[in-house]
Amino acid sequence: MNKLIQCIKIFLQRILKKFSSNSQQASPLINSRPLDTSIPSVSPRWKSGLVLVCSQCANEYSNSFHPTSRSSTASEDLENWLKSRLKFEGLWGEFRVVSTSCLGVCPRMGITVVLVSNGSGGNSPCLIVNPQSDRELLYSRIKQNKG
User: Fold this and answer.
1) Which of 68, 135, 136, 139 is the most exposed place for a label (fewest CB within 10 A)?
2) Is this model's pTM higher than 0.70 or not?
């Protein structure tokens, strides 16, 4: 075991030494390609929109929404409901529902949901949603983005 650890240390030292000597030279990738094309882009599978559901808002809200349940949070319930509804209506693929960490809005009651669409022109609405009473309204709003 000690021999293995020693070999790993030597290997890591060689890598670090090689990395530090290479970092002093100019990188050929940076000099050979324009900066704006150095980050590859892809076309996402979702065509009409992306629904970002904040998972952090729900931590406080879930205590009143599910006082005895520890199996899921209010945002997980909302996210799963939206996914099921989109799949049921054949819209899964055009839309994606994704859980995200804190979006920085932090409402007292409700869950932050951001609707991102290809046609939004950078203007993505940020909504405060009651995970029970606003479900249908939110779903209607999502379907409005269908392209």
Assistant:
1) 68
2) no
